[in-house]
Hints:
Low-confidence stretches: 786-794, 797-811
Radius of gyration: 50 Å
Amino acid sequence: MSEQTPLELPVITLREVVMFPRAVMTFHVGRSASVNAINSAVTEYDKRIFLVAQTNASIERPGLSDLFTVGVVSRIQRVERLQDGTIKLMCEGLYRASWLPLSSSSPFGDRAFPRLRTRELEETMLDDAELPAVVEALQETLSEACRKNRRITPEQLAAFALIEEPGALADAVAPVLKVDYLHKQAVLELLDKGERLRQVYQHLGGELITSRLDKTVKGRVKAQMEQNQREYYLTEQIKAINKELGHDDIQAELLELEQKLKAKNMPDEPREKALREVHKLRQMQAGSAEYVVGRNYVDWILDLPWNELKDIDIDLDKARSVLDGGHYGLEKAKTRILEYLAVQKLSGALKGPILCLVGPPGVGKTSLAKSIAEATGREFVRISLGGVRDEAEIRGHRRTYVGALPGKIIMALKRAKSNNPLFCLDEIDKMTVDFRGDPASALLEVLDPEQNNTFNDHYLDVDYDLSQVFFITTANSMSGIPAPLLDRMEVLELSSYLEGEKVHIARQFLLPRQWKLHGLQPENMKLSDNALIEVIRSYTRESGVRNLEREIAALCRKVAIQLVEGGDTSRCVSISLQNLSSFLGVKKYRYDERETRALPGVVAGLAYTGSGGDLLYIETVVMPGTGKVQVTGKLGDVMKESAHAAFSWLRSLSCRLGLRSDFHKDIDLHIHVPEGAVPKDGPSAGITLATSLASALLGIPVRNDICMTGEITLRGRILPIGGLREKLLAARRSGMKTVLIPADNEKDLKEVPDEIVKALDVRLVSHADDVLPLALLAPADEIFSGECSDSLIHSLRSPRSFSSDLGGAVL
């Protein structure tokens, strides 16, 4: 088609409507300019008019910049004037055209209606072998749309079927597309007939897919509405039946529960599960067992503080003041706690190692945890794990069991009424294992900051977030804590109190508290320093101050009796060293408990127990026999093995000690550790056992003012031990003067208070050869080759003498 001369025509601008060639459209015209354009087209332009869409439909008086560049030259078929002044116009599209302004001075015409110069656009048709297939596919899609969409009538479908030319078919179908006018305008502007047909086919296919989805969604909505109506109808029937039976209160109660669940700040999963449970309850009899189980479950869900957090204010000055005000000493533990709180304040997160406070009874582990809660503003919850042997105590029971309940963790959260309390898991080393499971394994998830945000209690059967809970555990000994559980915690060791620290604690904390509990005033009771020290030394033997407080309470009771019986509650009762026994009775312990004289085979060792350090005597006697070694005193396997290792070392040293190589065949040895009712174990008594054996075999007494500790090897080497601070405290308390410790423990002396180190003569030894000359009351040359007056021991001596070089070679 050759280029046409521009044709001046009146213009009607369309809002959200696009005209297409070969299409017949009817629309209403109300703007005065458009009405004038119609009148002019009918009278002056042979009923031809230019229809072009506005880019923005909201503009009432559009300019040239507000029009699309392509429109359609159309012929007016019918004009119907309506009573409201508008015109109902029917037009037939002739061809697509672009437009030009009339002139630079009057671009839109100078009369009462707009005009433009239009130029017919030439359409193109590329050689495309796929177009027949596209035409056929479009016809099939139109047939399906006619069946499923009433907007396309059978008459329109028949008309479409007669059109074979791609461009004409595209222009005929485009007006019935249910797409935005912008997409239709884009189709109008496509001059390539094949591309235009593909665009129309794509839009029609998308419309059909949307129609299918609409139908599916409407079907689902209808089914859901029918289900809801059915449930509503049945629910109303149930209400009517319950009303007749007098069960209105139960249904009202369930409705209240449902409203509470919807209003509570909690995760969606437990809320939905509880709502399903309420729905089940509506179908049950109120007196049935299942109703009670379901109702209890819903109550637990409601009572838990799912997202309820208490405001936390970490003030290090306040925390330091609270810790110092409630505990004397324990500087290492206090410093680590303040570091922990400082990191929390900076990071704004709780994730970090779980603190485990390990120490003897009565040193303040639980009260220290309580002080941390006070310093941070958290709720304090103590959970005792001593004797717990059932996994269900931690994770809860499944609801299928009779009397099922949540575990201790969930129960404690209910008591705390907030989701960020401080949990003190007390006595974590006292848990046991039996056929019901291992509670320590259940705690692995609880005490792992990477996992406890999805803690699953068997009773609730939904995940609970424990990541905001501040966990602190306490234990008397790390030996009772399983290794995987211990690996999840950072251990803070709390050592035994010194005598001076106990005096300070008694004056500053214990006495004022007991005065208040017993109704006494400070001026009613005067306790001298010497009497207080005597109470600590002769009436208590502990690492902490628990028994000391009991003895102080006993003193307060005696004072209270005297005040009441005397009738003068304002007088002062003095307690001194001289009259202390009249208040507390005879002494319970001997302060200086060491042996009064040196004896062969009797050696003082040092032990670390759950109550701190203690003095441990080992006795050995030699009797004629056949080489038997008997070990008694309720010893553990490790300590028995230490005894055999010590004896083997002495046998290897027989040449240097002046004993026959087969001396053990003619004697029996009995090794005994007094206080046989108390279990004892550990390798640190090795050097003590060796010294006791050597003293008994040689008949040389052991100094009664010396004690020792250290593990021995078959070569006589002395290995390091633990609990040095507590052991040195026990040595000082027992009146010992000299203490032998492994040389490798020299670094641990920095942790021991200076007053203890200065009060003792601490000797570092690395080999058993260094121990015997220091412990036995004999020169070194007599020990390793000397004579002995004891007849039995003398008979064990070899008639020959061995050089020390040979003995050294044997070792």
